[in-house]
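Regression test case RT-17, inverse folding.

Input:
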């Protein structure tokens, strides 16, 4: 047996039990860490929570809450108010088969996001004499933004 083999065997014999202890400690550490992570992930605060309040309201929900009493987004489905299908890019008061107020018919603009935002916030300011009564406007800028994004998306 060469000198190097002897030293290698001696090293294995003297460090063998220590290695086993180290391996056991490593395993115990990993098991403890995994147990702790499992416990932490099972807590309710680690799970995704449903949004509270208006944070989780989608554009469609905001539309339904504020507009759907009078308006629909289906083409040709006019109710108390005109349908809002593809309203972005449409000339105000120009939808066929709907009896707009004279104020809306005479409005000389095309609906865009900014104009819709102002109109949804305060219809009388944008088109005085419109027929949106009793609707007085929507003060929540966040909800207006969601409604406009909903109306602007392809349907």
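Golden output:
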């Amino acid at each position: 047996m060469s000198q190097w083999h002897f030293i290698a065997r001696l090293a294995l014999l003297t460090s063998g039990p220590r290695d086993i202890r180290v391996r056991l400690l490593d395993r115990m550490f990993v098991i403890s860490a995994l147990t702790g992570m499992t416990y932490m992930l099972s807590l309710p605060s680690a799970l995704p929570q449903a949004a509270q309040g208006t944070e989780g309201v989608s554009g469609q929900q905001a539309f339904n809450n504020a507009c759907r009493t009078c308006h629909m987004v289906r083409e040709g489905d006019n109710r108390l108010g005109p349908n809002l299908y593809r309203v972005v890019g449409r000339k105000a008061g120009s939808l066929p088969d709907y009896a707009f107020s004279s104020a809306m018919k005479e409005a000389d603009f095309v609906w865009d996001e900014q104009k819709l935002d102002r109109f949804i916030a305060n219809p009388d300011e944008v088109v005085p004499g419109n027929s949106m009564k009793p609707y007085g406007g929507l003060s929540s800028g966040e909800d207006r933004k969601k409604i406009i994004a909903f109306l602007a998306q392809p349907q």
